[in-house]
Design a protein that fits this description.
Order of helices and strands: EHEHEHEHEEHEHHEHEHEHEH
CATH topology of the largest domain: Rossmann fold
Radius of gyration: 20 Å
CATH superfamily of the largest domain: P-loop containing nucleotide triphosphate hydrolases
């Protein structure tokens, strides 16, 4: 998918901020792409963006209307359809992260065909992928992996992109989930790819590149999660990472949605190296990213220091403390990345 920006964010009439978490993620990382928000009466979510009608958004230069919400079942409420059709008739592409495909709704499908605009269903992908080949390709790749799902893999990769570019390094975030695709403007929701083609899809997403270029690949799930390990393993093989960062939420005792205990960081490092060597024998860990949101300042800093000492790797909270220590480690381990 290659979604044109700037974006006009559509929040419908959702009842709380959490329902607009996808939109919030986009604003957090791509504020410069977000021109404004359009809401229906009664909407309880607010992105802090200028209020715009569809016409005002188009006049300001918007290219795509983003349906930036999540709801139970991923359905599109019938009373939202008129606003989406209005945006299409004004010339906007429309992108949605809901489970229902936009083109399944007759009014939207017919309006898009009549007006020649594109519909993007970010949870779905019609791209044809080859099976993965595991052949060594040029360029450098980093994959974020986790002790669990929803452990900070996307935010860590995005924070690395921002920090590395600030230092003049050649680095690109590669999205493998629907929110990441919105943030990046392109990518593939890897969990919607047929299993045989997962590694090939990641090879397509992060192809051969210049020797000093970094692709920062958003991880998914966990190699230890009984629900998602298959996706995580295919992603690992296709990414062929030179480096990986382990992401962890320290207050959890079981993995999300199951009763299995979280693996240790050491176990994640060991299994990632053992499995990753299939496509990159030189794979290595370069850091640990901890979500310390639930910890006080002193407790957070003590935990990071303890983990850094225990594993011999820099440890940080990417949101709270930034990722400079991770970039320093990358430059030390991969000096060629500083010579772009």
């Amino acid at each position: 998918m290659d979604i044109a920006h700037p974006y006009l964010m559509f929040l419908g009439d959702v009842h709380d901020q959490l329902a607009a978490k996808t939109a919030h993620g986009i604003v957090d990382w791509r504020r410069e792409w977000c021109l404004g928000q359009t809401r229906l009466p009664g909407c309880q979510a607010d992105l802090g963006l200028p209020e715009m009608t569809i016409a005002e958004g188009v006049a300001a230069g918007a290219k795509t209307l983003i349906v930036g919400v999540a709801n139970a079942g991923g359905v599109l409420p019938a009373h939202w359809v008129a606003t989406i059709v209005q945006a299409i008739e004004a010339g906007l592409d429309v992108a949605s992260g809901l489970h229902v495909r936009l083109g399944q709704i007759p009014e939207i499908r017919e309006a898009a065909a009549h007006n020649g605009v594109q519909l993007f269903d970010v949870r779905h992908n019609d791209q044809t992928f080859a099976t993965g080949k595991g052949t060594k390709r040029s360029g450098l790749r980093l994959l974020t992996v986790g002790t669990d799902c929803s452990s900070g893999k996307k935010y860590t990769a995005l924070a690395l992109e921002r920090a590395m570019r600030a230092r003049g390094l050649d680095a690109d975030f590669r999205a493998t989930g629907q929110t990441g695709v919105f943030i990046s403007g392109h990518g593939v929701a890897i969990d919607a790819v047929v299993a045989d083609f997962i590694s090939g899809a990641v090879e397509w997403l992060a192809p051969a590149a210049a020797p000093g270029h970094w692709d920062l690949i958003e991880g998914q799930g966990s190699l230890f999660h009984p629900s998602f390990a298959g996706v995580s393993l295919g992603l690992l093989h296709g990414a062929q990472p030179d480096a990986f960062v382990v992401c962890h939420e320290p207050t959890r005792r079981t993995m999300r949605g199951v009763t299995h205990a979280l693996p240790t960081i050491a176990e994640v490092i060991e299994l990632t190296v053992r499995c990753g060597r299939l496509t990159n024998p030189a794979i290595r860990p370069v850091g640990i990213a901890i979500n310390t949101k639930a910890l006080g300042e002193a407790e957070a800093r003590a935990l990071l220091a303890e983990l850094a000492h225990e594993h011999g790797l820099p440890a940080t909270d990417p949101v709270r403390y930034g990722v400079d220590v991770l970039v320093d480690r990358l430059l030390a381990d991969f000096p060629e990345s500083g010579r772009v």
